[in-house]
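ENTRY TYPE: paired fold submission
RECORD: A
CONTENT: sequence, then structure tokens
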Amino acid sequence: MNNMFDITGKVAVVTGGSGVLGSNIAEGLLKAGAKVIIIGAHQDRVDAALERLKAVSQDVAGTVCNVLDIESLRSVKDTVLSKWGRVDFLINAAGGNIPGGTLTVDQNIFDMKVEDLNKVVDLNLYGTVYPCLVFGEIMAKQQSGAIVNVSSMAAYESITRVPGYSMAKSAVENFTRWLAQEMAIKFSEKIRVNAIAPGFFIGNQNRAILINPDGSLTERSQKVIAKTPMRRFGDISELNGSVQFLCSDAASFITGATLAIDGGFSAFSGV
């Protein structure tokens, strides 16, 4: 039996764990035998996610936390250490867009409110950086661990209508590379920092942009599919294998990398 991909008994913290992306990743880690604590911004969503995840495994806990609040994150850190004694993996799935941060078809960049732009950048960039600072410090003391950040196709291509999100995800990739060398050189080569870059998946935040009320594809969706060689949207569960791989010993010599999970979107010129 090949145990390189085994993460049984490992402890994972998943930010944004009450959302579609984060809860799906948390479920994948639980099915692989890990212990998971999910972090979410709203108690009702955390409770709903926990109810579903506990049907998979009892080795799961959840807490409300603002990923932009260092002290709140430190409180979660203390809770995790008290419960399980260590943190082996950090998955930064907190992020996304907000209505004011996405331009409508009739708007241009000068119509965007600066405060909405700031909110999107803060959530996606600092909402990744701050958890790395708090939980990465545990890994530095342990001399081991794996961090998986979440980038986006918006960091690869100048996708229209989402300027703040694109800027933030581009910065997340740069920070991923920077933190990877920092942790390996100054603390341990057994601490790895990588990212995944999901392609296009249908979720609550983008459903109205990609799917018409009658279930047909919007014009934007048709453009996405035309540039995706696999000619389909991804299923959210198709992220889980890559996350497990990057957390496991199978990826022991991979750090500072971003893995595209996009059906070929980033590789295709469209012609």
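RECORD: B
CONTENT: sequence, then structure tokens
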Amino acid sequence: MFGIDTLGYIGFTARDIGAWKKFAPDVLGLQIGQELEDGTLVLRADLHQRRIIIHPGDHDDVAYVGWECRSSADLNQLRDDLRAAQIPFDEVDIEAARALSVREMIRFRDLDGVLIEAHYGPTLLANQPFVSPVGARPFLTQEQGLGHLVLATDRYQEQIDFYQRVLGFKLTDSLMISGINREAMFMRVNERHHSLAIVDMPPSNGPRLHHILLEMNSLDEVGFAYSRAKAAGAHILIDLGRHVNDNMFSFYVLTPSGWSVEIGWGGIQIDDETWHVTHYPTNSSWGHEFRMPPAFQASK
């Protein structure tokens, strides 16, 4: 695939950095690679220098998404595709890109205003292996990228068209989300079932971001994370279950920012030569019981 090839990193703003300093390592098992002067946390999940970046802010939401290209030629192809679609983009100067641990970068926005940092050449710290503070193994990343993210939108078909037609994402499948009767479209840029999902749901009542996925290398690693979350008093937003489309065995834990992280294992990989786009009337084959957050219950 030319152009974008993997989900490289994601940046967020958060009102409670202190809570994230405990949640990210103690519950998720991520390594704090850097803590910048302004309080920003740079989190590692593997050899990449930066995978998740949490910035202090006055609201909790996604700040930018780093979509990775394999090479300078692929990034140039993306430039050509953006020009052809008349999508404006900004060049990031080389020094600024290197300071963000990539060789080259351009920035533009999707139709909902989410900032996209398309880049190639991420910095890998092969001389500083990833070490989880809770003894977790490295997450399932490599050529599949960081994981996935799910965004809510009130411009559902337009966003799907943007990511498919302009950025070259491929449609994998769609489903109806149980309980809210909203459709979600799942899209891929490599063999991972999806790196992005778009939900037909106005984000006016919360952040545009619904959740991100961190995929484990074994079922036991999911169990260990589940036990850590329970022991830490973190809220399990969606309990253990298995999804119908990507076959992921997972649970969702609520972050200090109000969106969730899916901790999963067993996601299928897609063979482009044989895959057919399909639709499902529900999101899970079993389990995945939703649990209302205590703060929301108290406001009722």
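NOTES ON RECORD B: The domain at 4-120 is CATH 3.10.180.10 (2,3-Dihydroxybiphenyl 1,2-Dioxygenase; domain 1). Residues 189 and 279 are 19 Å apart (CA to CA).
STATUS: closed
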